[in-house]
Amino acid sequence: MNLHVLRDKGNVSEDQIAQKLGFFDTVGAPSARVMYQRLQEDWGLPDWVVYPDGVGKGSDKGKKHRVPNTEEMRERKAQPSRDAIEELPPAEDAIEELPSPEGAIELFDKGIEQLQYYLNTLPMLVQQRQGKRFVSSEWIEDDVEDYLDPRDYSEAEWKKICEVNDVDPDTVPMNLVKLVPPHLSPRGSGPRVYKNLKVLIGMYALIYGSVDRLLEVLYPWPQEKEKEKEKLRKKLYEKRVPKKDRSKDGYVTRLLIAAEQIAQTVQGVEVGGGKPPPEVSRHELWIKWNIIDPMYQQGHSDQEILDYLNEDFAGEGDEYSLSKVIYLRTLYTPKPSR
Predict the structure, then answer these.
(1) Number of independent structural domains in the chain
(2) Which residues, 6 or more positions from 143, have their beta carbon under 8 angstroms from its beta carbon?
(3) Quick check: 313 and 287 in contact, CB under 8 A?
(4) 233 contacts 252 by C-beta, under 8 angstroms
(5) Residue 40: which of 32, 31, 52, 49 has the closest Cα?
(6) CA-CA 20 to 30 A from 223: which of 3, 64, 135, 286?
(7) Is the pLDDT at 147 greater than 70, yes or no?
(8) CA distances (Å), 131 to each of 40, 190, 193, 214, 260, in order?
(9) Residue 129 within a domain
(10) Is residue 157 part of a domain?
(11) Is 16 contained in some domain?
(12) Residues 268-291: pLDDT tens digits?
């Protein structure tokens, strides 16, 4: 049953037509908007076929669309329906094989080593806050070896260093080993949090999507400031509507979005380059690759696949629909060879 036949009935909405033809949005709801987009992007159909009034939102103002005559309509109605999409040549050109992340393991390992170094410095970190100014130092508890190079000093300075350390400047090796007693080593002062701690806090926020536990540890709230917590949470986690104004999002929200955009860019995707494709869950992709596609290739109908899924895989109140089976079957996401 095709688009024109359903519209000719006159008693179904565009969303109902989308459901019958297997077009759903990212949350699984039937969507006329998604139907219009995929009919144009995947099938290349013109506005007068896709939209009920013959004019889409993206059409040029004032542009007239010729109404097809009866013979043209009869020819177009005879074309294959959505269910026949598997007979089209596969869109292999649209599949771009990306290098295995294995090649980046060495780089990631170096990052982990640096994180481990930052983590090891935390017990030595001494912090103070003066308004918006942070003062950071490290307490060096154990004796350390400080290697001095004579080339870094004038002849007079080097003689003085050797004299203090009771060594002969004419016989001392190139590097003079000097024991430094426990001391407080300054790391800087300014509006920014000490780098080691900043990186670790950012990593924690990326992994867990929240810094609530860190707040409890790093900045215990006085009882009288309890009401300010909600304001702080808004600064951290708020998600603004409309999404176009991301500058008003919370700090953690923006961090997570930025991390996703960085990852997309590194993997070759132009961020903001048109509407993104709908999400397909891990479970839906598993069902498609391991049940729907193999059964369809064996000659089973969509209804038979649906019956099998609902009998063996669906939980109570979580049954599959025929439109969902058709949607996943016609979705071009072939299983990788490895």
Answers:
(1) 3
(2) 179, 180, 181, 182
(3) yes
(4) no
(5) 49
(6) 135
(7) no
(8) 57, 11, 13, 20, 33
(9) no
(10) no
(11) yes
(12) 878 876 677 788 889 889 999 999
